[in-house]
Amino acid sequence: MSIIALLPAAGSGSRMGAAIPKQYLPLCGKTVIEHTVAALHAVDEIDHVVVVISPDDTRWDELSWQGFARLKVLRCGGDSRAASVCNGLAALRDDGLEAQSWVLVHDAARPCISPALVAGMIAELKDDPVGGILAVPVADTLKAADAGQRIAATRPRDGLWQAQTPQMFRLQPLHDALVSGMGPDITDEASAIEKTGQSPKLVHGSPWNLKVTWPQDLHLASLILAGAQATTNKD
Ligand SMILES: Nc1ccn([C@@H]2O[C@H](COP(=O)(O)OP(=O)(O)OP(=O)(O)O)[C@@H](O)[C@H]2O)c(=O)n1
Ligand SMILES: C[C@](O)(CO)[C@H](O)COP(=O)(O)O
Q1: Tens digits of residue pLDDT in 3-37
Q2: Quick one: which of 8, 11, 162, 176 could link to 84 by a disulfide (CB 3.0–4.6 Å)?
Q3: Where is this site: Transition state stabilizer (predicted)?
């Protein structure tokens, strides 16, 4: 059974506020998306890394993808993350990928993911009946805000986790769940699967696996990648 990494990369990066989409911003001598692709491509268990870009993307072809033998690009991004993922899954299915293949959906905007973490996730979930996601338990006290940005309440954080990616589900059930659940509340793959009444597994992720969202995240990502590089060089 195939295992595919599917990277939605068709966003505009509005919160980053840069002149170009954040996945193409420079980070430690490459672009954000090059780090993400390299990390997923380094996972031996993954058969193909498939990137979903916007149909009007002009930057992908300017990068050098030599050496990534298992990399494929699809120009079928949609107007939301869920739509981009859904379109990518439909293209994989139309291409003949078996319905029960595992798909690991991973944000192109999470360039610090470690291949070892992904390999561990695959080992933990490959016999799971539903699939699951990387996530980390909430570590801070949670406040609900009123309209004036004053604290309205303190919320219990027991049992709350922050969802990360990859999110690992089987191709056809995930596609069907996204099609039937599509809407603004579907902000990740797990939420679509949950809507079908199933409970995805939470697999411990890492605080290093941050999503580059705001301008300061690029600096954090560069520190994380530099730290990872220093560790590798010591081995
Ligand atoms: N229509 C979209 C929107 C998002 N994404 C991708 O989904 C991932 C996570 O989304 P997010 O961080 O929200 O990215 P953006 O939508 O680009 O950012 P923003 O919401 O700030 O505009 C990113 O890799 C992004 O490229 C996508 O493929 N298609
Ligand atoms: C899928 C995700 O990375 C889980 O944390 C996240 O929801 C994607 O970001 P967005 O801002 O909701 O598009």
Answers
A1: 999 999 999 999 999 999 999 999 999 999 999 99
A2: 8
A3: 15, 22
Question: How remote is the CA of residue 121 from the centroid of ligand 1, in Å?
Answer: 23
What domains are there in the chain, each with its CATH number? 3-128+166-198+210-234 (3.90.550.10)
Ligand 1 atom at minimal distance to the Cα of residue 79: 1
What residues have CB less than 8 Å from 14, skipping those under 6 apart? none
Amino acid at 56: D
pTM of the model: 0.97
